[in-house]
Amino acid sequence: MNSTYWSWDTFLDALPFVLQGLGYTVGLTIASYLFALLFGFVWTFLRRLPNKVFHFVVTWIMEFIRSTPPLVQLFFIYYAWPMIPGIGVTLSPFTSAVIGLGIHFSTYIGEIYRSGIESVDKGQWEASRALNFTTIDKWKKVILPQALPPTIPMLGNYFIIMFKEVPLASIIGVAGIMLMANSYGAQNWAYLEPLTIVGIIFLLLSYPSAVLIRKLEIKMNTRFDKNATIKGN
Amino acid sequence: MTEPIVKFQDVHKSFGDTQVLKGINLDINSAEKVAVIGPSGSGKTTIIRMLMTLEEPTSGDIIVGGTNLWKMEKKGQMVRANEKHLREIRGDIGMVFQHFNLFPHMTILENCMTAPIHVKKEAKEEVRDRSIQMLDRVGLGDKLNNYPSQLSGGQKQRVAMARALVMRPKIMLFDEVTSALDPELVGEVLEVIRDIAKNDDMAMVLVTHEMDFALDIADKVLFLDEGVIAEQGTASQVIEHSTNERLQEFLHRFRK
Questions:
Q1: Contact call for A232 and B151, based on CB within 8 A
Q2: A148 CB contacts (<8 Å, ≥6 apart)?
Q3: Domains in chain B, please, with CATH?
Q4: Does B218 touch chain A (CB under 8 A)?
Q5: What fold does the segment set A22-175 form as a domain?
Q6: Which residues in chain A land under pLDDT 70?
Q7: Chosen from A124, A129, A131 to mutate, greatest number of chain B CBs within 10 A
Q8: CA-CA 20 to 30 A from B10: which of A106, A171, A218, B241?
Q9: How far apart are CA B209 and CA B212, in angstroms?
Q10: pLDDT tens across A4-38, in order?
Q11: Is the dihedral of CA B152, B156, B159, B161 positive or negative?
Q12: B23 by DSSP, 3-state: which?
């Protein structure tokens, strides 16, 4: 094949260059995902505090974060935040991206936790109270072990969604595969091959993850019924 | 005569605009078996839910073992009880629910062991022995490692009773424990309650629609009607000698 549009030589030349960014791409995905998982708990906890005004404020902060594009948030954290007198801090592109993507997606993950907690039957709370559990033991032994497993497939989906949002961070200079492909393109005036490589890498990584999560979902759905031989009541 | 273990003093309870209980006065002595009967919506369940600290009374006092349950003293004033105060008293009370409320992620043995170990900080080996003994007593000694989802409703309810008994409460509350069961499973659960009532010296309060059973085991029967105790006394007093028309009508519907 001798096309002026596509060159396998360029492809092979670009491949190792683009792959240099893989560590950052995967690393940023994992770091911002862990951040979102942890921060999601913070939202869920804050919203459960009994104060009505506080609940209202927290709900609207979450709504605000969710309704603003993550790209704008990244720009804000990286460029605008350091300019605020007194509290402004200059952060590296990677740290900015972890915080930006982490906080943005933590608002969704907080909702997932909430739905998991609300799916626990009211009787479980009452039984914990009747058995005189402390608040901490009630959460540790009774509520969370039932609330979290059903959320695992949904949390897994967010891992893939976040993975696909990570290229956004190239715009503030995180040297992931997207930034590498872009700079290869700029240097060699050849965008087709490096960006195709980016696409292939994302496909190769997301698709197996999606299959894995679907399997997990099926397993979770059958978990409580699996051993049911006699129907209750 | 010794002081009653539970005293209700002019207890009222409203849910929003609906007044459910309109001044309950009641003494329960230790080891006394009390049956609460009455039409649905009369507030039977609310009485024991307040005692279990699942609902807070709108007004009035509930005294458990000489201590005010829902109020505590702070700087010389009676204020609303905090969780710490409630926890101290709640330890003496156990409850069996209409819908069992077993922990689905634990085996039935774990269901029984978890509270004595984590709440009462008892030694694991001792708790295990006691739990196995208790599950044997309710006829489920061969199902220790099964999960609740593998049991019938009657079996689940018997586990729930074992779970409450292992905590050694001084007061046991039974909230319509047979009404979610298929008719053929009711008998096995009642047998266990009868056994507890006969052999254990804790106070028991049963909210129930199993009229004959209640009258059979109860030392005292309360007939609750429209938020008040309309009649109370021994089973024979309430059943045979009461002139309360609403009670007669209520019993008649059960005796067809």
A1: yes
A2: A113, A116
A3: 1-92+171-178+203-256 (3.40.50.300)
A4: no
A5: MetI-like fold (1.10.3720)
A6: 1-3, 222-233
A7: A131
A8: B241
A9: 9
A10: 788 999 999 999 999 999 999 999 999 999 999 99
A11: negative
A12: strand
